[in-house]
Amino acid sequence: MSDEIPEDVQEFATALFTLARSGQLQLLEYVDRGVDVDLTNQDGNSFLMLAAYAGHPELVRGLLERGADVNKLNERGQSIVAGAVFQGDEAIVRMLIDANADPDAGHPTARETATMFGRAALIELLPPRREA
């Protein structure tokens, strides 16, 4: 038995991740029909990470409403909220924080990213550090 993914399945997955990157709400229909909302690509990037990083608030909202893991890290240990902070997208950062994104998860964290890139307004959106 081969571990290789059939070409047609690879093409379908690639198309889904393209929908996420481009903010196409059609992706939500696939999720509603059974595609895993937390499916990741070869780099560990989920639909939510791609949509948030590319600045698509409607798709981000739809994925969150369908239970996407807001704290899922990619293969490089990067968080979704840190990516949104890096992009400087206040609306998406706010959405992710409201969905309980951990600003101290991943490397660099959202808090560290905001500091590195001078995003003072976004630092103020982040909740206080959680006590250990």
What does this molecule look like?
With 132 residues, this protein is an all-alpha fold. 52% of the residues lie in helices and 0% in strands. The chain is built from eight helices and no strands. The chain has helices at 7-22, 26-32, 47-53, 57-65, 80-87, 90-98, 110-116, 120-125. It is elongated. It starts with 6 loop residues before the first helix and ends in a 7-residue tail after the last helix. The relative contact order is 0.12.
**Helix-strand pattern, N to C?**
HHHHHHHH
Mean pLDDT across every amino acid position:
93
Q: Count helical runs.
A: 8
Number of strands: 0
Broad structural category: mainly alpha
Distance from N terminus to C terminus (CA atoms, Å) equals 47 Å
Radius of gyration: 15 Å
Helical amount? 40-55%
What does the largest sheet look like? none
**Low-confidence parts:** none
Dominant shape: elongated
Proportion of β residues?
Answer: under 5%
Summed up:
This protein has helices spanning 7-22, 26-32, 47-53, 57-65, 80-87, 90-98, 110-116, 120-125.
List the helices and strands and how they pair.
Layout: H1 7-22, H2 26-32, H3 47-53, H4 57-65, H5 80-87, H6 90-98, H7 110-116, H8 120-125
